[in-house]
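Lecture 7 notes: from sequence to structure.
We start with the chain below.
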Amino acid sequence: MRFRRPSPVAMDLAVVAVSLFDIWANVDPEESVRFGCALGGAVALMLRRRVPLVTFVLTVPAVLVSDAAFATLAALYTLASLTRRRWLLAVCALCFTIADMVPWPAPKVDLLEPSTLITLTYTAATAAAPVFLGQLVQARRDLSLRLAEISEARDHERLLTAQTVLAKERAQLAREMHDVVSHQVSLIAVRAGALQVGTRDAEVKEAAATIRRLSVQTLDELRHMVSVLRAAGGRPTELTPQPSLADLERLVSGSGIEADLQPDLPGGLPPTVQRAVYRTVQEALTNVRKHAPGASARVRINHQGGTVRVTVTNTAPTRPALPLPSAHYGLVGLRQRAALLGGTVTSGPTADGGYELRLELPAAGA
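Predicted structure tokens for the same chain:
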């Protein structure tokens, strides 16, 4: 069980209470001067954190005229824990020693007597104790601050190291994407353009034009992706242009499958929500094209009760699927994107042999 440190106000009240008990035990209330000085010193302890030197000065008369020394020792400890002027502490300790040794109202001290020397030694040690204790507390506080600074600097260094490693990995990924993927997609675009120009078949010409358009679009997005990866460690770079709901119709019409789009969304949705809806529909249509050849799809998008719902349902395939490479990261990425926005993605087969993908997001985003 962790110990909870009392509040400063509670500590001050406790110190004042102990000082009052010290007055009750050592000062006769009928001696008005002694009692008044001692009581004033006890009350002055409430100011010890804000004006420690003034507090000490106000408590000195109490030890000068009476035996109530606790308030002065507490004020001296507070001063020692807050000030860095050691000469001032030495002067204050000397003042306490003199005030405690000199009898009041008739100051007569014989320094040559052994008893006086013993009393002097004891009083000086009593004054030195709160000074050393206060300096120890101050050193502990400074050490804690220094350790916190060192820990913060170490965490910052670890962060910089992690960012450096990440920047190298992103730069390597950018090179691989540029050297491999960009080369292959460029070759596809060039071959599709040559086929479009060289063929007389209208259907083949249209297919070649679609392939070339998609290849050019992919190259453009890839170029922006590489720019983002190469900008690691510098100013954050937005992956532009970002798709929105206005691009859904073009996405569905150019998907290469028979798809019905039924959007029912208000305007003004956050860009992150629009992007999530677009990427969900894009991934769903891509999966239909890859895994369910000949199937048709229906895309339903609506907004109700502060929630955006996207449902993409496809029928059963009519042709066998071609074996295409897949890492199965598409749905994983959709779920991660939805989770960041406070939503969910679910998917599964339908009763008629098709497949359904569902997205639910808060309309305001995360």
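Points to note: The CA atoms of residues 194 and 208 lie 9 Å apart. The first strand starts at residue 259 and ends at 264.
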